Amino acid sequence: MRKKFRFSLAYQILAGLILGIIVGAVFYGHPGVEKYLQPLGTIFLNMIKMIVVPIIVSTLVLGVAGTGDLKQLGKIGGKTILYFEAVTTVAILVGLLAANLFHPGSGVDMSSLEKGDIDQYVKTTKEVESEDHGALQTLVNIVPTNIVDSMANTNMLQIIFFTVLFGLGIAAIGDKGKPVLAFFEGVADAMFWVTNLIMKFAPFGVFGLIAVTVSKFGLASLVPLGKLMILVYATMIFFILVVLGGIAKLIGINIFHLLRVLKDELLLAYSTSSSETVLPKIIEKMEKFGSPKDIVSFVIPTGYSFNLDGSTLYQAIAALFIAQMYDIHLSIVHQITLVLVLMVTSKGIAGVPGVSFVVLLATLGSVGIPLEGLAFIAGIDRLLDMARTVVNVVGNSLATIVISKWEHRFNDVKRAAYYETYK
Question: Least enclosed by CB within 10 Å: which of 203, 291, 294, 352?
């Protein structure tokens, strides 16, 4: 008997994406598109941002208090950071290899490229460079002076630091902490209900965001930069299927099973260029997929600062693309320098909006690449951001399984049962 077709959220988001592209293309250059449709996207993104902090705090408190062991938590944290560093380094190397093999910037006629406005990024970069983002300063910045301010600015690392200590405190006071734990359990359940409600608006938000993007830049404007776009997308797909797929196979997971379970979230992340939009659902799904609550609630939020696989991969390709555009040869030493600088800066400013572009602006000068070159790819940065957001989401989701397997706490029976619902 054939399964009855169900117009699921993934299909609704896809429909919003396609309609947005059509409307944006038809009304290319018309100011009314941004005026009337941008609010749809803004409302959706604001609703998601509204629930991110309560979900992270409540689930992390429950996870940490459930563990209740500082030594065990430190062990999970150490393994998580070690894994993140290894995978992001591979991502940078894959990006450099792709750019060196295919030379996307060679032979580019710069007169045919339209410059974009990078003033907003330069302003952010100056703010970033006014601070010291060395390893020690990054550690200092993790400790909040005002947790309410950290929550208001969604500073993920500071929120995690405070919440971990708070969760350990609840565990340490025993029975006195049970009412507090019950409160956060109620908050978590309520926020997941709110998340499911907000997700019903996702197709409309996606429609508005995509329509505005296409109406601004048009389809024809993408042609001169097509080579870069094709290489970025092809490398991202290679990274997911080969690198992340290889890691998944090593731990006994089929990467296609994971992608199938996450299809709604990946389509939403791609459409909105925002990992935040899917954070609540990723936490919920990875727990159902077999990872324990304490590992999921620690790894996913931490990954948003330390495991930006797609962003670091893109930064490596974009840096070499600009160097090739200006016919600048980067030696192996220069490329190693670029890898080291990107590894540090991408961690130090992970909470800054437009992080990939900002990191590039802050680090290109370290190997003598003209910053002005970024103006040529500013126009399509949004479209490239869509791809790197998907890789970030897949990378962080897989990380929860890796750490769970590493701790011998992954539930394969639960995973198999949950995957059956997606067949």
Answer: 352
CA distance 310 to 239: 9
Amino acid at 1: M
Query: What is the spatial distance between Cα 8 and Cα 198, in angstroms, rounded to a whole number?
Result: 15
Q: What is the pLDDT of residue 108?
A: 65
The rounded distance, in Å, linking the Cα atoms of 96 and 93 is 5
Residue 409 tokens read as 């706490």
Tokens at residue 66, please? 């459930």
Distance (Å, rounded) from C-alpha 48 to C-alpha 273?
A: 13
Segment 55-103, tens digit of pLDDT: 888 888 887 787 666 677 778 888 998 999 899 999 999 999 999 999 8
Terminus-to-terminus CA distance in the chain, angstroms?
14
**pLDDT at residue 242 tops 90:** yes
Domains of the chain, CATH where assigned: 9-70+83-420 (1.10.3860.10)
CA distance 399 to 76: 12
The CA distances from residue 126 to 361, 378, 398, in Å, are 9, 18, 34
pLDDT for the residue 1: 42
SS3 letters across the chain: CCCCCCCCHHHHHHHHHHHHHHHHHHCCCCHHHHHHHHHHHHHHHHHHHHHHHHHHHHHHHHHHHHHCCHHHHHHHHHHHHHHHHHHHHHHHHHHHHHHHHHCCCCCCCHHHCCCCCCHHHHHHHHHHHCCCCCHHHHHHHHCCCCHHHHHHCCCHHHHHHHHHHHHHHHHHCHHHHHHHHHHHHHHHHHHHHHHHHHHCCHHHHHHHHHHHHHHHHCCHHHCCCHHHHHHHHHHHHHHHHHHHHHHHHHCCCCHHHHHHHCHHHHHHHHHHCCCHHHHHHHHHHHHHCCCCHHHHHHHHHHHHHHCCHHHHHHHHHHHHHHHHHCCCCCCHHHHHHHHHHHHHHHHHCCCCCCHHHHHHHHHHHHHCCCHHHHHHCCCCHHHHHHHHHHHHHHHHHHHHHHHHHHCCCCCHHHHHHHHHCCC
What does the alpha-carbon distance between residue 120 and residue 131 come to, in Å, rounded to a whole number?
Answer: 18
Place of tokens 């339209």: 114
In this prediction, residue 390 has a pLDDT band, given cuts at 50, 70 and 90, of: very high
